[in-house]
Design goal:
- The protein contains 1 helix and 4 strands.
- It has 50 residues and is of the alpha+beta class.
- It is rod-shaped.
C-alpha cells in the first residue's frame, strides 16, 4: 500500500484516438486509377493512437 501511495500524484497516460489524416478515418485509400487498398498508416482502422 505504501508503494502506491508514493506515486499517487503521477497521472496515468491514456491513449487518445485521432482520426487518420491519410484516409480521413475511413481506413481505405484510393489511388489515381481507382484501385482501393487498406491504409498503411492506421492499418485500416481509421484511427491513430497517440
Amino acid at each position: 500500500m505504501l508503494f502506491f501511495a508514493r506515486f499517487k500524484h503521477i497521472k496515468m497516460k491514456t491513449k487518445k484516438a485521432l482520426v487518420c489524416p491519410n484516409c480521413w478515418g475511413l481506413g481505405i485509400v484510393t489511388d489515381e486509377d481507382g484501385n482501393t487498398a487498406l491504409c498503411v498508416a492506421c492499418n485500416g482502422t481509421g484511427k491513430i493512437y497517440n
